[in-house]
Design a protein that fits this description.
Layout lengths: L15 H7 L3 H11 L7 E11 L5 E10 L4 E7 L6 H15 L13 E7 L10 E4 L1 E2 L6 E2 L3 E7 L7 H10 L10 H12 L1 H48 L5 H8 L3 H9 L11 E2 L5 E2 L4 H5 L2 E2 L5 E2 L3 H43 L5 H8 L3 H8 L1
Parallel strand pairs: 3-4, 4-8
Antiparallel strand pairs: 1-2, 2-3, 5-8, 6-7, 9-10, 11-12
C-alpha cells in the first residue's frame, strides 16, 4: 500500500508533489508567471499540470505544468530540485516536444507557436548569483540578438537579492515562508495544502496515485524480465544437453541460434541457475538484495551545500511503488510460471536446431525429456 505523505509540513511549492497540485490553478500559474516573465499584464487561459507530450517517434515526456497565455504563447514550467547537469538540453527537448505537439501538419512556419521554457531550480543553474537567467540567441558575427519564437528562462530559487523574484522564491523554497500581500494565491494554496485536513487528504491522494504508477510499472517490468530469463535458461539447458549427448556440434549450434561460441562455452560450464537468479543483485558487501529501484541505480543527487536527496519527492514515492510491484510480480510469476517459461525456451531452441538440420527431432526430444510427439506437432 502507498504510504501517506510523511510530513506535509515539510513540503514546499518547489517540491513537485505540491507543485503538481498548485499548478491546477490558473490564478496560481498566472501569479507565478507574471513575476518570472516580468509581465504584469500576463493572463493564463489554460494550465495543465503533468501534461504528457509525445514526439513523432513515440518518446514522451511529462511536463510539470504547461500553460497557454492569452497572447498564444505556450509556457512549460518545470521545478528542479537537483542539478543533473543536463538542464539546457532538457529545456531544448521540452520545447521541441511542445512545438511538435501543438503544431498541426501543414501549419506555415510563421504560425508555429511561440514557446517559453521556465526552469525553477533549487540551485544556481548558471552559477553567477543572479535570480534570473534569460538565454537569448545571438548572431556570432555581429553580436546582434535574434529570435525564433523560443524563450529559455532559468530561475535561481536560492537567490536572495531583495528582488520580487527572490521574494517569491523564498515562498517557494522555505517551508514556513508566506507573503499574503505580494503573492496571495501562492501563499493561500501553500497554506491550505500544508496546514489543513483538506490539504492533507489532497496530498495523500497524490502520493497514492504516484505510488500506484510505480507499482504497475514495476510489476510489468518484473514479469517481462522473468519471462526473458526463463526463455534464456531454456535455450542454455537445451544446447548444453544436446552438445553433451553428442547430438549437436557446439559451433554449429551456436551459429544456428545466433549466439557467440564463447557464450555457448559459458552456458555449458554454468550450473543450472535457480529461478530468478538473474534478477537478484549483489551489494558491495556480497549480500544478495532484490531489487534495485530505478532511483537506487541512479544514486542520490547532490545540491550546492552538500545536501543529498533524490531529485524530487515524486521520484522517491514512485521508486517505492516500483520496488514493491517488482517484488510482488517476482514472487507470483516465478511461483506459477517459471517451469513453463523454461519449457518454452527448450522447445523453441530445439525447433531451430531441427529446422537447421543439426539434430533429429525425436532424438533431441528424448535427450531433453520432452514428448517426441509433442515436439513433432510443434514443428509441423
Amino acid at each position: 500500500m502507498a504510504r501517506a505523505v510523511r510530513d506535509v509540513g515539510k513540503l514546499r511549492p518547489i517540491d513537485d508533489l505540491m507543485f503538481r497540485v498548485m499548478a491546477q490553478s490558473k490564478a496560481f500559474c498566472g501569479e507565478l508567471l507574471r513575476v518570472l516573465l516580468q509581465d504584469p499584464g500576463l493572463e493564463v487561459v489554460e494550465c495543465k499540470p503533468q501534461s504528457a507530450v509525445t514526439n513523432t517517434r513515440g518518446r514522451s515526456a511529462v511536463l510539470d505544468a504547461l500553460c497557454e497565455l492569452s497572447d498564444g504563447r505556450l509556457v512549460d514550467v518545470e521545478v528542479q530540485r537537483a542539478d543533473k547537469g543536463d538542464l539546457q538540453r532538457r529545456a531544448r527537448y521540452y520545447a521541441s516536444l511542445v512545438t511538435a505537439d501543438r503544431t498541426r501538419p501543414g501549419t506555415p512556419f510563421g504560425d508555429v507557436p511561440d514557446v517559453c521554457v521556465v526552469l525553477v531550480c533549487e540551485f544556481d543553474p548558471l552559477r553567477a548569483g543572479c535570480p534570473l537567467y534569460h538565454v537569448d540567441r545571438v548572431v556570432r558575427e555581429t553580436g546582434e540578438s535574434t529570435e525564433n519564437g523560443l524563450e529559455e528562462l532559468y530561475v535561481n530559487a536560492l537567490a536572495r537579492d531583495g528582488s520580487e523574484v527572490s521574494a517569491l522564491m523564498r515562498v517557494f523554497t522555505e517551508a514556513e515562508a508566506y507573503d499574503d500581500e505580494r503573492f496571495p494565491e501562492t501563499s493561500r494554496m501553500k497554506r491550505r495544502l500544508r496546514e489543513t485536513e483538506e490539504g492533507r487528504i489532497v496530498m495523500d491522494g497524490g502520493t497514492k496515485e504516484i505510488w500506484a504508477e510505480g507499482f504497475t510499472k514495476g510489476f510489468a517490468e518484473s514479469f517481462e524480465r522473468s519471462w526473458t530469463e526463463g526463455i534464456a535458461i531454456g535455450k542454455a539447458e537445451t544446447l548444453g544437453k544436446l552438445v553433451r549427448a553428442g547430438l549437436v556440434d557446439a559451433h554449429a549450434g551456436a551459429a544456428s541460434l545466433g549466439i557467440d561460441f564463447d557464450e555457448v562455452e559459458r552456458m555449458l560450464a554454468q550450473r543450472d541457475p535457480r529461478p530468478g537468479e538473474a534478477l537478484v543483485e549483489t551489494d558491495a558487501h556480497g549480500e544478495e538484495r532484490f531489487p534495485a529501484t530505478p532511483s537506487e541505480r541512479r544514486g542520490p543527487r547532490k545540491t550546492e551545500g552538500g545536501r543529498v536527496f533524490m531529485s524530487n519527492v515524486s521520484e522517491e514515492i514512485w521508486a517505492e511503488g516500483f520496488a514493491e510491484g517488482f517484488a510482488e510480480s517476482f514472487a507470483e510469476s516465478f511461483a506459477r510460471g517459471w517451469t513453463g517459461r523454461i519449457a518454452v525456451g527448450k522447445a523453441k531452441t530445439l525447433g531451430k536446431l531441427v529446422r537447421a538440420g543439426l539434430v533429429d527431432a525425436r532424438a533431441g526430444a528424448a535427450s531433453l525429456g520432452l514428448d517426441p510427439d509433442e515436439v513433432e506437432r510443434m514443428l509441423a
